[in-house]
Each structure stands twice: as structure tokens, then as C-alpha cells.
Amino acid sequence: MFSSLSVYTLLALSVCAANAFPQYQSLAGLTRDELDAVVPTLQYSPPQPPPGPLADDSTKLVNDAAHPHMPLKPGDIRGPCPALNTLASHGYLPRNGIVTPTQIMNAVQEGFNLENAFARFLVFSTFLVNGNPITNLMSIGGATPLTGPNPPKPATVGGLNSHNNCEGDTSMTRDDFFFGNNHDFDEARFQNFVNFSNKFGAGKYNLTVAAELRHFLHQDSLMRNPQFSLVSPRLFTAYGESVFPINIFIDGRQKDGQLDLTVARGFFQLMQFPKDFHRHDGAISNEGFDTVYNKYPIQPGGNTKGVNTYKADPTSATLFQPCLRYTDFVNKNIKALYPNPTGLLRKSINTNLQFLFEATAGDNCTQVFPYGKDN
Predict the structure, then answer these.
(1) Cβ neighbours of residue 122 closer than 8 Å, sequence gap 6 or more
(2) CA 194 to chain CA mean position, Å
(3) By the 8 A CB rule, do 97 and 201 touch?
(4) Would you identify the CATH topology of the domain 48-363?
């Protein structure tokens, strides 16, 4: 269903190049009046409403003839998320790695059976920080001109490689940002995954292994990374990262919660579904994260004065404060990137914030409006 996206993107960008402003030029430094005049010319693409839950969330073959694995072409982008990398390499997402939030929603539900509200919160929180609200495009890896002209700074539009949102310290297969490469597969870190699976899981990755490995990764960053940080929202995605291989990388016909290491490498390194792979049977989110956390509970925080100087951050939401995570994300993270958006930029951000809030319905959170309400 996405076969025409690359063509569409190129057409849109070629039209954009004909505008008076260079195609990929940053808009930082323009006055408010100049920005209001320019933004409407930037191939504005209004946010699309996210899809609802799948009508049929039973297990099904997803490594099928319509979604063959293909090697990367020059210019194709991949990043720190093995799940999205795999979906792109099989064509559930655009193979070039430039996506819209709705495309991600469709792909993670169809390919992995990710639960709708959980997927929505992940997708729109990630997009609001790392995507381009004007063009409605985001890179699943590093920053690229293919997402269109950047909104004014301090917005970054850095893609999923941006530090401390989806990506962050203590990754299982990517190194900490401080050491220079936070997005490419790291064999040494994957060997930790293998060794802990052999030691605690009889050669399989499971919840017992996940708890031990998560603790090790926390201690490793604590002792090596002087800028180590593990606060919301990265705290949330770090523990989600520990359980998602169990929840979505195991064939849906398999019910024992034991991930084969060859299958794991296929996802983490090769970005490839196993042969005859079926998605999870029933929608799933981050089941098991509390088991991983409760074995070695920690408070959000980070190193403050070099390595091994971890200090708890009482202002950060914990794993069990979803409403504080939501309000802090909006009032702190988004406001920091977009202090005073106007016009179409403000309208787009508000729409995406509405989609994000709707994902918290089950938590009974109070909605916040950092830029006021649109009529």
C-alpha cells in the first residue's frame, strides 16, 4: 500500500524546490512575520487521523509474498529501532525510511499487532519531538532533507537518532550517545544479549534474562558514561525495549515467551523477519515491563559529576506515573522545542498533541493545552 510513497515524496519535494526559499533551508532566524508568510509555502501536509485498532488481531503470516525483505538501496535510512527497521526493509513502511505517523501506526499494528493506544502514544510522542509537523514526515534514522525544510530552532527534526526520547542510554544493541554512535548495530552489545541469554535463559531471551540484562546495562552506563541519563520519556522506552523482543519478535504461534537468539539477531542486525513469521496472537503492548523493573527497581536520574555519580531526579515521572509523563512531555519537552508556534505550525502541533492525549484515555489524565485551544 506504500509503493507510491517515494514517488509522492519526490514530487512534493520537487515542487517545494521551486519556491523562493531553498528546499531544505532551516527557517531559524526569521522574524515572526516572515515565518508566518513562509510556512504556508512549505508543502504543508495536514496531520492524518491515526487508525483505530485492527478489526482482526489474530495471528497471521506477515513475512509474506507481498512484503519481501529487500537489501538497502543507496540513501535508504535506518536507525536505532529494530522493529521499524524491519518493517521498512519488508515494505510495511516506505523502504527509504521516511514515514508519516499514520504509516507507522498501520505498520506496527499490521506487522507486530501492537496495541492501538500504546502504539499511538509511542508514535505521536516520537513524532512531536523528532518529526516535521509541517510536512508530516519523519526519518526512522538520522536527520535528512527528505523530511522537508526544518521549522525554526530550537526544533531539531532529528529523526529517531535524536538522543533521549525513543533512543537513549542503556540500549541493548546500540551504544550510548556519549560514545559517538547511538544508532548502528553494535556487535559487542549484542554479545551481552547473547551471554546473558545463555547464562540466565538456557540460550533463550526471556523475562528473567531481560531483568538481569537491564540491570547490567544500567550499571554499565553508570560506570562508563559521565553524561548517563535515564529520565522520562527515555525511562519508559528503556523498559519497553527490554520486553518488546519477547512480545513482538516471537512467532505468534509460539506461546512460551522464549526468543531464539538467531531470530533476535535477524531483527536487531539484519532487519529481517524469520521465514514463515507470524505476528503476535492478539494486540500487545509492553507486557512484562513491571517484572523487569521490580527485580532491580531504580529511580529516574543520571550521573551528575562524572561516572558513578548517579543522582535521582525527583521531577521526572516514574514508570508508574503515566499522567505525569504525559503532562511533563507536553509542557517541558514540546514547549522547549516549540516555544511560540504560530499559524499552520501551531495548528499542526495542536492536532498531533490531541492525537497524543487520546492515547491516554485509559489513564484518565487531564489534557493540557500549551498553545491554547484551536477553534
Answers:
(1) 166, 237, 240
(2) 24
(3) no
(4) Chloroperoxidase (1.10.489)
Ordered by start, the domain boundaries in the chain are: 48-363
Query: Which pLDDT score is estimated for 357?
Result: 98
| pTM flag (> 0.85) | yes
Distance of alpha carbon 324 from alpha carbon 34, whole angstroms: 36
Higher pLDDT, 353 or 25: 353
- 169 closest CA partner among 243, 118, 97, 219: 219
| Backbone region of residue 122 per phi and psi (left: phi > 0; alpha: psi in -120 to 50; beta: other values) | alpha
Q: What is the rounded CA–CA span in Å between residue 82 and residue 297?
A: 26
CA distance 130 to 64: 31
Identify the residue whose cell numbers are 516471537.
Answer: 250
Q: Give me the DSSP letters along 89-155.
A: HTTSS-TTSEE-HHHHHHHHHHHH-B-HHHHHHHHHHHHHHHSBTTTTBEESSS--GGG-SPPSTT-
Q: Is the pLDDT of residue 45 over 70?
A: yes
d(CA 191, CA 187): 6
Peptide bond into 154 cis (omega under 30): yes
Compute φ and ψ for 310, nearest 5 degrees.
-65, 130
Please check whether residue 266 is in contact with residue 190, taking contact to mean a CB–CB distance below 8 angstroms.
no
Region 1-5 average pLDDT: 33
